[in-house]
Amino acid sequence: MEGLSSGDQSRTVAGMALSSEPLATKDNSTGAYSSKNGALDQQPDTSNLEEAELSLRGRGSLNYEEARALLGRMEYQKGNVEAALHVFEGINIAAVTPRMKATLAKRREHHKRRSQSFSTPPMSIHAASLLMEAILLKAKSLQHLGRFREAAQSCKVIVDIVESSFSEGLPENFAADFKLQETLNKAVELLPELWKLADSPREAIMSYRRALLNQWNLDVETTARIQKDFAILLLYSGGEACPPNLRSQMDSSFVPKNNIEEAILLLMILLRKIILKRIERDPSILDHLSFALSVSGGLKALASQVEELLPGIINRNERYHILSLCYYGAGEELIALDLLRKLLHVNEDPNCVPALLMASKICGKTPKLAEEGINYARRALQSLENNCNQLESVAYCLLGVSLSAHSQVAVADSVRATKQFEALEALESAGRMTKDARL
């Protein structure tokens, strides 16, 4: 107790001990709460004594806020979320914020080696890091208790402090030996998620853009997760966000004008990172990009992205199928047919029903290709083997169309009549199956 001093506070440590006395009665050793999965982390942090030692070395004493930060962390690690929040709420954030900013600013000047001032910062960098972690744990505690807006506001304090202290962004390897960078990374990633939970999409979008446009020294995986989550929000949130204000971009640079364009830009960046093997392969990124480019009419752009993928990122048959869909949707039906022929080769996937149906549909539009369309439709029927009446109905319909088209180029009248009769039979079968499916 003698190592604890009140610092700038007039309150004594004895008073703090009294205020935190109920904490001992709320023991629930289930580990610290994790904001990512909503579960309690079973790995307790044993660095409390180390943090205290570092702060004592920096100042010779622990003040009231630092002591509360350590005590709150211990309660949080034991799973006593409400008790931890009670301790964290005793920290006067408004009072310590200016001192934290001043400490970080001194650190910035030291890093640049431009300042000749030897004045002592208001607190050590260890103390600032400890308090910043306490603010983050307070936000996580509020999140666990369902108080999402308060959690977001608490988390935003961390981002505001660092941003105001480093207007030009964090220098590389800043605070590499301390928890400051780790705490900042977690806060930057958590903040938009909290705004989403608080049903504040506008604030969430602003937080995502802030996370991606400012220099936070985030690692590649963290940045990729933020980019993906932001793209998903833009695609499926149902609301239209105002376009980003990218003043730093050059006039020739692309600036997205709406949600879809911004999501496409983010997903293309992620796809490029996968191609360059900077991040692990994530098949859902291509799925989201396919949806975004499809609804925006950018199917040729999607085809270009798929063609640039290195072998092994997606299966070769899947590659043929996606490209055929892209070119078919873009009106390049003959290119799509060539790709389908490759997919349906005997050495690839000759029984792929969706590819057989699409190839039959393309061929049925041209009398010269109608015979090939007939073959595809019959192969589709053989592959289905009465497993799906709806698809069989489609196959019979396409068979009838191809037979009818083929009859137009028949030389002999008998062949023409036969093909027309077979076409009518196939179309009648399709009609019966469609009627049966509706019953």
From TrEMBL:
* Residue ranges of the TM segments: none
Which portions of the sequence form the region Disordered?
1-48
Compositional bias ranges of the Polar residues kind: 1-12, 26-37
InterPro entries hit by this protein: NPG1-like, TPR-like_helical_dom_sf
Could you tell me what this protein is called? PROTEIN NPGR2
The major lineage groups are:
Eukaryota, Viridiplantae, Streptophyta, Embryophyta, Tracheophyta
